[in-house]
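Progress report, Aim 2. The chain analyzed during this reporting quarter is listed below.
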Amino acid sequence: MSWLTLGSLALPFTMNRNALVLRTEMARLNHELVSGQAKDPQRRLNGDLGPLSAVESRLARIEAFDQANRLATSAADIAQSALTRAGDIASDIGNRMLAVSTDGIAPATLRAGATAARSALGDLSSTLAQRVAGRAVFSGTASDTAPLPEGEAVLAAILPSVSGLTEAEDIVAAVTSAFMDPGGLFETALYQGGPAAGGPAIDTAANAPALPTAADPALRRLLAGLVISALAGEGALGLADVHRQALARAGAEALIGAAPAIAEAQASLGETQARLDSTLTRLGGERDALTLARQTLIGVDPYQAASELEVVQTRLETLYALTARTQRLSLTEYL
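Predicted structure tokens for the chain:
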């Protein structure tokens, strides 16, 4: 009698324990079926987690490098687009100023060309102020501020340097000196950025090349050419028409002369873009290989996991049925 009683008391606990084991096993198989990876990597690898840690560490670093690379690529693309726009401005305004500088051109036509140059100066200033992730692309290390003031502010800063000059050659020399001389007006008052900033880390011991700044000599020559062209129509200078034509011609020569340097800057930036693209592709291939290696270490066969899950479900359903039947046993049913 006592043995039967003890067995009867132990049966529910045995069934509950078996049910807990089966439910735990079902949860594990469900997780592995959904994720495709072992729920307990330490058990799967017999406690040797070194290879898995190395794979996951490199994958995490690749993810960080990938994000930095994509940000650098976006900045380089915007810089390339800005340089393309700068080249277009140099070509368009240069040809226009050359056309209005010929003898016999009406003063109103010349002023219209100078007005176009003035507008292009503002356009270029806005183009070089573009940002990526809140950072000004052409400002170098001082990426929190635009590299140049607005076009009208540039002209206003230059006017005192040329005020009182009556010869076109003197005005051209003064403007060129202001933009191109070390320690000149451009560096001390106009350029608001900093030195070229080193690019972010895009791989182990590899950084993205620095992007050009608005202080690049090619862009400074372009700015000088636009200012000279705009001054050809400046009424405050009180120049004779012949000197205005000479300014227009000098502005055209400066703009057309700046085009090759801008093309060289574009080519250099194109090499940077190619390097970033190559690194991004290589990191993507390495990530795929490491993901496959991680799957080899802790991956599970979905078909096997599904089969095991079905077996566990069947065993659990059978256990529930037996549990329900034992709870309904009575002396009458036993007899």
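Confidence is low (pLDDT under 50) at residues 1-6, 331-335. The chain has two domains: 54-290, 304-335. These observations will guide the mutagenesis work planned for the next reporting period.
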